[in-house]
Amino acid sequence: MAVLHGHTELVRSITFSLDGTFLVSGGDDKIVKLWDVQTGGVVRTFCGHIYGIHSVAISLDCITIASGCRCTILLWHAQTGDSFCVIDGLNHQVTSLNFSPTNSQLLLSATHDGNVQQWGLDGCQIGPTHEGRGAAFSLDGTNFVSWGGQVATVRNSNSRVVVAELHVSSGNFKCCCFSPDGKFVAGCAGYTSYIWDITGLDPHLIKSLIGHKSVIIALIFPSSLISVSHDITIKFWQTGTPSTDPGPTGTESTPSKSSPIESVSLQVKDGIAISSDLAGVVKTWNILTGLCKASFQTPAPSISWRDAQLIEGRLIIVWHEDQELCILSRFSP
Q: What per-residue string of b and e applies to 100-113 under the rule 16 or more CB within 10 Å gives b?
């Protein structure tokens, strides 16, 4: 296990580059760091924020890093460490940043007061401000979904034309995601997950997936839907053929855990999902069968935030302990 020293205060956000070779971190010390995952060394340090950082992102081509704090987003040259653009005047804390998965020139932000905006790398806002406390791109970058309260809205990334408006009757949206082909959007509110067909002229709800006993905290959608809940289970939903099976379905569920699950990541090309819980137990799952492939204990009990990537056959797990980042590398089972 490697401990990455460099931050002097609480680390609040970390993210991998798409190829898994770099890690970006930011926190209360107002500093952004770019790390080499294989060596654990600092590639670059970025200084310039006047408030603590709550969100970081790195572009598809690994050329640009974005970091967000209270009312401000900074854009950085990853190779030089220089800030080349300041986006300020935002009304609240930046809670999420996402580069388009197909266009490194397009950035999507969400703030705590419920505003979602698109930005170019020149710092100019693209299109109007939309309502939402969170936002995510489709895998092909064609659309993005923003959510807040009981409404989620799908828009075309270029025209901003509304593709679909999705509603839940109880609870508030926690998160949304697209299916890999972009034809379906999944969302969760309270204990229930939903799937909408957004193709054609009549976007409509096709599934209400009921089975969790506590609030759902995360969704991933590799083929069928996977949901993670505070009831200490992961459920692999057998969604069947959406056009002919509109009712609730059965699930493949993980066995009960001794501690709540706090994070889940997806490795589509390798066919696995990786989960970790508050006790530091990491499990890998076959995303087609829902069966656990392997389970092992990490030296990180009581740590509530992790991320993981599978890189060249090695499982890389990252978590933060106050002002330190920790990386554990092991061969994938």
A: bbeebebbbbbbee
Tell me the whole-structure pTM to 2 decimals. 0.81
- The residue extents of the domains of the chain are 1-133, 138-253, 259-333
Residue 51, token pair as written in the block: 């408030």
At the fourth CATH level, the homologous superfamily of domain 138-253 is YVTN repeat-like/Quinoprotein amine dehydrogenase (2.130.10.10)
CATH number of 259-333: 2.40.10
64-68 and 70-77 strand pairing: antiparallel
Q: What is the pLDDT of residues 238-296, one digit of tens each?
A: 765 443 333 334 444 444 445 777 777 777 677 788 887 777 788 888 877 778 888 88
**Distance, CA of 125 to CA of 84 (rounded, Å):** 16
Instruction: Give the separation between CA 101 and CA 115, rounded to whole angstroms.
Output: 21
**Domain 1-133 fold:** Methylamine Dehydrogenase; Chain H (2.130.10)
